[in-house]
Amino acid sequence: MATQAPQQEIPWWQKYLARGVGCGGGIIAMGLGVVNAITFSPLCLVASIWQMLAAFIVISAEAPCCCMFVEFVQRYSMWVESRPHWQKAVFYIIIALPAIVMCPRLSTIFGSGLIFLCGVLYGMMALGRKGSREDMIAAAQQSTRPGGMKDNLVDGAAMSPA
Protein backbone atom coordinates (compact mmCIF):
# COMPACT_ATOMS: atom_id res chain seq x y z
CA MET A 1 0.00 0.00 0.00
CA ALA A 2 1.04 3.58 -0.52
CA THR A 3 2.27 5.57 2.41
CA GLN A 4 0.19 8.47 3.58
CA ALA A 5 0.98 11.61 5.53
CA PRO A 6 0.51 11.05 9.25
CA GLN A 7 -3.14 11.60 10.06
CA GLN A 8 -2.42 13.43 13.32
CA GLU A 9 -0.83 16.29 11.36
CA ILE A 10 -4.07 17.08 9.52
CA PRO A 11 -6.67 19.10 11.43
CA TRP A 12 -10.01 17.35 11.83
CA TRP A 13 -11.91 20.26 10.30
CA GLN A 14 -9.83 20.08 7.13
CA LYS A 15 -10.72 16.41 6.61
CA TYR A 16 -14.42 17.09 7.07
CA LEU A 17 -14.26 20.18 4.86
CA ALA A 18 -12.71 18.19 2.00
CA ARG A 19 -15.28 15.42 2.39
CA GLY A 20 -18.13 17.94 2.63
CA VAL A 21 -17.01 19.81 -0.47
CA GLY A 22 -16.57 16.49 -2.29
CA CYS A 23 -20.02 15.21 -1.32
CA GLY A 24 -21.94 18.48 -1.64
CA GLY A 25 -19.99 19.57 -4.70
CA GLY A 26 -20.59 16.20 -6.34
CA ILE A 27 -24.33 16.44 -5.78
CA ILE A 28 -24.42 20.00 -7.12
CA ALA A 29 -22.21 19.03 -10.09
CA MET A 30 -24.51 16.13 -10.91
CA GLY A 31 -27.59 18.38 -10.83
CA LEU A 32 -25.91 21.03 -12.95
CA GLY A 33 -24.78 18.31 -15.36
CA VAL A 34 -28.41 17.30 -15.86
CA VAL A 35 -29.37 20.94 -16.47
CA ASN A 36 -26.43 21.37 -18.83
CA ALA A 37 -27.48 18.29 -20.83
CA ILE A 38 -30.43 20.28 -22.20
CA THR A 39 -28.47 21.80 -25.05
CA PHE A 40 -28.14 21.78 -28.82
CA SER A 41 -24.34 21.69 -28.73
CA PRO A 42 -22.90 18.18 -28.96
CA LEU A 43 -19.71 19.25 -27.16
CA CYS A 44 -21.69 20.64 -24.22
CA LEU A 45 -23.69 17.40 -24.11
CA VAL A 46 -20.45 15.41 -23.83
CA ALA A 47 -19.20 17.87 -21.19
CA SER A 48 -22.38 17.46 -19.14
CA ILE A 49 -22.11 13.65 -19.30
CA TRP A 50 -18.45 13.93 -18.23
CA GLN A 51 -19.41 16.24 -15.37
CA MET A 52 -22.09 13.82 -14.14
CA LEU A 53 -19.65 10.90 -14.36
CA ALA A 54 -16.99 12.86 -12.45
CA ALA A 55 -19.58 13.82 -9.84
CA PHE A 56 -20.59 10.16 -9.40
CA ILE A 57 -16.94 9.16 -8.97
CA VAL A 58 -16.38 11.82 -6.32
CA ILE A 59 -19.63 11.10 -4.48
CA SER A 60 -18.99 7.36 -4.43
CA ALA A 61 -15.49 7.95 -3.03
CA GLU A 62 -16.34 10.64 -0.48
CA ALA A 63 -19.83 9.57 0.61
CA PRO A 64 -20.44 5.91 -0.17
CA CYS A 65 -23.70 6.02 1.80
CA CYS A 66 -25.19 8.07 -1.05
CA CYS A 67 -24.58 5.18 -3.46
CA MET A 68 -25.23 2.22 -1.16
CA PHE A 69 -27.26 0.33 -3.75
CA VAL A 70 -24.36 0.16 -6.20
CA GLU A 71 -22.48 -3.03 -5.37
CA PHE A 72 -18.83 -2.04 -5.87
CA VAL A 73 -18.98 1.38 -4.20
CA GLN A 74 -17.99 0.23 -0.70
CA ARG A 75 -14.82 -1.50 -1.93
CA TYR A 76 -14.02 1.45 -4.20
CA SER A 77 -14.48 3.92 -1.34
CA MET A 78 -12.19 1.94 0.94
CA TRP A 79 -9.57 1.74 -1.83
CA VAL A 80 -9.72 5.50 -2.41
CA GLU A 81 -9.50 6.11 1.35
CA SER A 82 -6.24 4.16 1.48
CA ARG A 83 -4.63 6.36 -1.20
CA PRO A 84 -2.36 9.27 -0.22
CA HIS A 85 -3.94 12.71 -0.27
CA TRP A 86 -1.80 13.93 -3.16
CA GLN A 87 -3.11 11.14 -5.41
CA LYS A 88 -6.71 12.05 -4.61
CA ALA A 89 -5.90 15.71 -5.26
CA VAL A 90 -4.36 15.04 -8.67
CA PHE A 91 -7.20 12.71 -9.68
CA TYR A 92 -9.99 15.10 -8.66
CA ILE A 93 -8.32 18.04 -10.38
CA ILE A 94 -7.78 16.06 -13.58
CA ILE A 95 -11.36 14.76 -13.81
CA ALA A 96 -12.77 18.25 -13.18
CA LEU A 97 -10.96 19.99 -16.03
CA PRO A 98 -12.27 18.34 -19.25
CA ALA A 99 -15.88 19.47 -18.74
CA ILE A 100 -14.76 23.07 -18.19
CA VAL A 101 -12.54 22.96 -21.28
CA MET A 102 -15.24 21.40 -23.50
CA CYS A 103 -18.10 23.71 -22.50
CA PRO A 104 -17.13 26.82 -20.52
CA ARG A 105 -20.63 27.72 -19.30
CA LEU A 106 -21.35 29.02 -15.83
CA SER A 107 -23.07 25.78 -14.76
CA THR A 108 -20.13 23.69 -15.95
CA ILE A 109 -17.55 25.96 -14.35
CA PHE A 110 -19.40 26.01 -11.04
CA GLY A 111 -20.17 22.26 -10.93
CA SER A 112 -16.76 21.04 -12.02
CA GLY A 113 -15.17 23.86 -10.04
CA LEU A 114 -16.49 22.31 -6.82
CA ILE A 115 -14.85 19.01 -7.75
CA PHE A 116 -11.68 20.96 -8.54
CA LEU A 117 -11.93 22.67 -5.14
CA CYS A 118 -12.15 19.27 -3.44
CA GLY A 119 -8.91 18.33 -5.22
CA VAL A 120 -7.28 21.55 -4.08
CA LEU A 121 -8.30 20.84 -0.47
CA TYR A 122 -6.78 17.36 -0.67
CA GLY A 123 -3.64 18.94 -2.14
CA MET A 124 -3.42 21.27 0.84
CA MET A 125 -3.82 18.29 3.13
CA ALA A 126 -0.97 16.55 1.29
CA LEU A 127 1.30 19.52 1.91
CA GLY A 128 0.65 19.29 5.63
CA ARG A 129 0.88 21.95 8.28
CA LYS A 130 3.07 24.94 7.85
CA GLY A 131 6.10 25.28 10.09
CA SER A 132 6.06 27.02 13.44
CA ARG A 133 6.90 30.69 13.70
CA GLU A 134 10.34 29.90 15.10
CA ASP A 135 11.09 27.53 12.21
CA MET A 136 10.04 30.16 9.66
CA ILE A 137 12.18 32.85 11.30
CA ALA A 138 15.19 30.52 11.41
CA ALA A 139 14.73 29.62 7.73
CA ALA A 140 14.44 33.29 6.74
CA GLN A 141 17.57 34.24 8.71
CA GLN A 142 19.53 31.37 7.23
CA SER A 143 18.58 32.26 3.67
CA THR A 144 19.83 35.89 4.01
CA ARG A 145 23.32 34.97 5.27
CA PRO A 146 26.27 34.96 2.83
CA GLY A 147 25.99 31.90 0.64
CA GLY A 148 22.26 31.75 1.33
CA MET A 149 19.46 31.80 -1.17
CA LYS A 150 19.08 35.60 -1.44
CA ASP A 151 22.83 36.28 -1.67
CA ASN A 152 23.08 36.16 -5.47
CA LEU A 153 19.70 37.37 -6.65
CA VAL A 154 20.96 40.64 -8.07
CA ASP A 155 24.63 39.93 -8.80
CA GLY A 156 26.17 42.80 -10.64
CA ALA A 157 23.03 44.97 -10.51
CA ALA A 158 24.96 47.88 -8.95
CA MET A 159 27.78 47.56 -11.48
CA SER A 160 25.71 47.33 -14.65
CA PRO A 161 25.02 50.55 -16.59
CA ALA A 162 21.44 51.76 -16.70
From TrEMBL:
<dbReference type="GO" id="GO:0042734">
    <property type="term" value="C:presynaptic membrane"/>
</dbReference>
<dbReference type="GO" id="GO:0030672">
    <property type="term" value="C:synaptic vesicle membrane"/>
</dbReference>
<keyword id="KW-0406">Ion transport</keyword>
<keyword id="KW-0813">Transport</keyword>
<keyword id="KW-0812">Transmembrane</keyword>
<comment type="similarity">
    <text>Belongs to the calcium channel flower family.</text>
</comment>
<dbReference type="Pfam" id="PF10233">
    <property type="entry name" value="Cg6151-P"/>
</dbReference>
<keyword id="KW-0107">Calcium channel</keyword>
<feature type="transmembrane region" description="Helical">
    <location>
        <begin position="49"/>
        <end position="73"/>
    </location>
</feature>
<comment type="subunit">
    <text>Homomultimer. Associates with the dally/ magu complex.</text>
</comment>
<dbReference type="InterPro" id="IPR019365">
    <property type="entry name" value="TVP18/Ca-channel_flower"/>
</dbReference>
<feature type="transmembrane region" description="Helical">
    <location>
        <begin position="108"/>
        <end position="127"/>
    </location>
</feature>
<keyword id="KW-0407">Ion channel</keyword>
<keyword id="KW-0472">Membrane</keyword>
<feature type="transmembrane region" description="Helical">
    <location>
        <begin position="21"/>
        <end position="43"/>
    </location>
</feature>
<keyword id="KW-0106">Calcium</keyword>
<feature type="transmembrane region" description="Helical">
    <location>
        <begin position="85"/>
        <end position="102"/>
    </location>
</feature>
<dbReference type="GO" id="GO:0005262">
    <property type="term" value="F:calcium channel activity"/>
</dbReference>
<dbReference type="GO" id="GO:0016192">
    <property type="term" value="P:vesicle-mediated transport"/>
</dbReference>
<keyword id="KW-0966">Cell projection</keyword>
<keyword id="KW-1133">Transmembrane helix</keyword>
<keyword id="KW-0109">Calcium transport</keyword>
<protein>
    <recommendedName>
        <fullName>Calcium channel flower</fullName>
    </recommendedName>
</protein>
<keyword id="KW-0968">Cytoplasmic vesicle</keyword>
